């Protein structure tokens, strides 16, 4: 079972890239972030024609998350992160696919920091922490995948000294991510590749992709019931080099 996460950076504008990648790699489950499309503008027909069913939570102009599954219907569980009924940003959706509970998330960027956007990011992290703790108590296989907008360690950034004041790398952000993992989750890529330089995002500016000046901000957190099934994990880095592509690359794990 291949599960992937991909910040597509505009599902309609990048649709040819997404469909090409789906055809070439044929992952079983895909978590998408930054749809940048209202609910009614999600390209459901094209996704269906590619062999995938989908549940999604759209939002006009920005945000938006979706879970795609190949050949089977994802069973939606929730489409908002608990803890704030007034939060109308579409950043979380959860569904069961083939016996695995999949949480697809797009954590706030938080810049500029300090400021109200950074406060929102940390509050969202706290809500995720609470929900992730609840999910662990359910003792079921869970995968929390998506764009966390968090650089966990210096190994996860090209020239980390340039990011010390950025919301993605501030001490509060790193502490929040570590606190989340310490509940009992496992960072899948780091578990299998503890010392390897791995990036999932390369800025459009300054030829960042050509220089491999990237960040690792797209993560898979696995519950203990999933960790035992983890076989491999990686990044489809070449997709970032395709024409009119996202600034993120798809990240994937393989479960037996």
What does this molecule look like?
23% of the residues lie in helices and 27% in strands. By secondary structure, the protein is α+β, with helices and mostly antiparallel strands. The strands form three sheets. A six-stranded mixed sheet has the order 3-4-2-1-14-13. Strands 5-6-7-8-12-9 form a six-stranded mixed sheet. Strands 10-11 form a two-stranded antiparallel sheet. Strand 6 (92-97) and strand 7 form a beta hairpin. Helix 3 packs parallel to helix 4.
- Helix fraction bin: 10-25%
The share of residues in extended strands comes to: 25-35%
User: Count of DSSP helices?
Assistant: 6
Number of strands: 14
Mean pLDDT: 98
| Morphology call | globular
**Global Rg:** 17 Å
**What order do the strands of the largest sheet run in, or round the barrel if closed?**
3-4-2-1-14-13
Element pattern in H and E: EHEHEEEEEHEHEHEEEHEE
- What class do helices, strands and sheet pairing give? alpha+beta
Q: Name the poorly predicted regions.
A: none
Largest sheet: 6 strands, mixed
Distance between the termini: 6 Å
């Amino acid at each position: 079972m291949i599960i992937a996460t991909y910040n597509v950076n505009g599902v309609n504008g990048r649709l040819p890239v997404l469909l090409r990648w789906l055809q070439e790699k044929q992952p079983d489950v895909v978590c998408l972030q930054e749809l940048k499309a209202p609910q009614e503008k999600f390209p459901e027909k094209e996704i269906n024609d590619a062999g995938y069913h989908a549940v999604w939570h759209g939002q006009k102009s920005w945000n938006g998350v979706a879970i795609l599954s190949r050949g089977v219907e994802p069973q939606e569980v929730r489409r908002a992160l608990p803890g704030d009924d007034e939060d109308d940003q579409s950043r979380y959706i959860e569904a069961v696919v083939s016996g695995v509970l999949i949480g697809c998330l797009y954590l706030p960027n938080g810049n500029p920091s300090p400021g109200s956007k950074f406060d929102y990011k940390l509050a969202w992290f706290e809500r995720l922490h609470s929900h992730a703790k609840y999910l662990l108590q359910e003792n079921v296989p869970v995968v929390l995948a998506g764009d966390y907008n968090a650089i966990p360690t210096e190994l996860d950034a090209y020239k980390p000294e340039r990011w010390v004041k950025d919301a993605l790398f501030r001490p509060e952000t790193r502490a929040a991510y570590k606190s989340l993992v310490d509940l009992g989750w496992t960072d899948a890529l780091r578990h299998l590749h503890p010392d390897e330089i791995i990036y999932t995002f390369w800025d459009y500016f300054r030829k960042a992709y050509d220089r491999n000046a990237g960040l690792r901000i797209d993560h898979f957190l696995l519950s203990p019931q999933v960790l035992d099934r983890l076989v491999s994990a990686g990044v489809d880095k070449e997709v970032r080099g395709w024409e009119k592509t996202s600034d993120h690359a798809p990240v994937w794990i393989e479960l037996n």
